[in-house]
């Protein structure tokens, strides 16, 4: 009976009424000035034998569609828009080292350079990165100051791969990590971060690896390390260190997990951990690159899957943090479908009782049997190895 009641809290029943809530979206068009170039996928390379070079996956078109679907799509009456602002250099030092920030400032002063594989700091990139960081801080401060419980930082370049002392995976500054530090410095005792981007949120994990005040949970494709800029593997045994041991929970999901598998992981791994941790602030780090049609991922989430994740995250926030929930944008590289999936996720967060948009790509077949076995295996490992999850 108790388990059934908890599921009802996570997925409230539908009704015929429409949502009267709003989500506060923080955005600044200056972030579109980050130019990532053309080439073979994200390499920036022209091999000389292709007539058409594609845009880098992290390009401004993807964000333009996210902005436009929230402004002109059916969810638009439930959106309240706020203008972001650039972060100040001292604000960045809560998460990043001075040496690393100096490196980025110097690279920008000299006109930019490739920072690591697929990650290019070009003219305009640094200003965009500062806007992404500052806009995320503004979205968090809006909650902290009591103006609203639901904020969404619609930002680029993304941030969750950026570690305290290096860039990685299209990311320069860790937007979510900076917001977490702001919450902690403002008097919040415990912050939970749930990252559903298709890639391991390694930078955020690294930044709080020794802290028991921040629970980082990452649901990601089982991709492992991709080189010197991304030394973390995202495996279940990367649990944190010292007093932070057990407060970094990785959920490497099998490729093609899909809607049902993600929902199973959210209910059987994420929800129990949040309940045990008892946070007073929650951050949902979202990437639509977990979708069935993203060029940068191998998972099979559809709009229904994102809607369910939004519902679950909102239910957890309502139950444990007084409803305080910051959403931070990360990946999502299918220019059209990423926007649709964002719309669906926010519908879930806002508890919209009936889907406002039909899925344009529709049904994607899936078999959750294997992913359920993997989630149960991870659950057993966590219960055996993580002290705070074993506590009565």
TrEMBL record:
Domain Histone deacetylase: 56-347
Pfam family, one: Hist_deacetyl
InterPro entries, A to Z: HDACs, His_deacetylse_dom, His_deacetylse_dom_sf, Ureohydrolase_dom_sf
Molecular function terms from GO: histone deacetylase activity; hydrolase activity; metal ion binding
Cofactor(s) listed in the protein's UniProt record: Zn(2+)
Origin: domain of life: Eukaryota
BP terms from Gene Ontology: epigenetic regulation of gene expression
Membrane keyword on record: no
Record key words, sorted: Chromatin regulator, Hydrolase, Metal-binding, Repressor, Zinc
Family, per entry: Belongs to the histone deacetylase family.
Name of protein: OLC1v1004768C1
């Amino acid at each position: 009976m108790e388990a059934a009641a908890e599921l009802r809290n996570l997925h409230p029943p539908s009704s015929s009424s429409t949502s009267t809530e709003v989500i506060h979206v923080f955005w600044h068009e200056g972030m579109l000035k980050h130019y990532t170039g053309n080439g073979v996928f994200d390499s920036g390379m022209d091999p000389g034998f292709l007539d058409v070079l594609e845009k880098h996956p992290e390009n401004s078109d993807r964000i333009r569609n996210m902005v436009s679907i929230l402004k002109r799509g059916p969810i638009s009456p439930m959106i309240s828009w706020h203008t972001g602002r650039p972060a100040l250099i001292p604000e960045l030092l809560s998460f990043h080292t001075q040496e690393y920030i100096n490196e980025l400032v110097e690279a920008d002063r000299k006109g930019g350079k490739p920072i690591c594989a697929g990650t290019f700091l070009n003219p305009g990139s640094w200003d965009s990165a500062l806007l992404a960081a500052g806009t995320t801080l503004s979205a968090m401060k809006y909650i902290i100051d009591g103006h609203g419980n639901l904020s969404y930082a619609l930002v680029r370049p993304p941030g969750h791969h950026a570690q305290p002392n290096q860039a990685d995976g299209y990311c320069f500054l860790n937007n979510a990590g900076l917001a977490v530090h702001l919450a902690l410095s403002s008097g919040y005792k415990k912050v939970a971060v749930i990252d559903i981007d298709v890639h391991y949120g390694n930078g955020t994990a690294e930044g709080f690896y020794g802290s028991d005040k921040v629970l980082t949970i990452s649901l990601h494709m089982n991709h492992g390390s991709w080189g010197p800029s991304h030394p973390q593997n995202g495996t279940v045994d990367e649990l944190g260190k010292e007093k932070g041991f057990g407060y970094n929970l990785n959920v490497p999901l099998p490729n093609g997990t899909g809607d049902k598998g993600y929902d199973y992981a959210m209910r059987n791994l994420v929800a129990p951990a949040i309940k045990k941790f008892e946070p007073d602030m929650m951050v949902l780090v979202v990437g639509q690159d977990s979708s069935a049609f993203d060029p940068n991922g191998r998972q099979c989430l559809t709009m229904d899957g994102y809607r369910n994740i939004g519902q679950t995250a909102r239910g957890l926030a309502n139950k444990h943090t007084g409803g305080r929930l910051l959403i931070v944008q990360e990946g999502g590289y299918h220019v059209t479908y990423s926007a649709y999936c964002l719309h669906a996720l926010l519908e879930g967060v806002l508890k919209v009782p009936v889907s406002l948009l039909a899925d344009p790509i529709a049904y994607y077949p899936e078999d959750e049997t294997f992913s359920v076995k993997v989630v149960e295996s991870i659950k057993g490992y966590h219960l055996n190895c993580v002290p705070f999850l074993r506590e009565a």
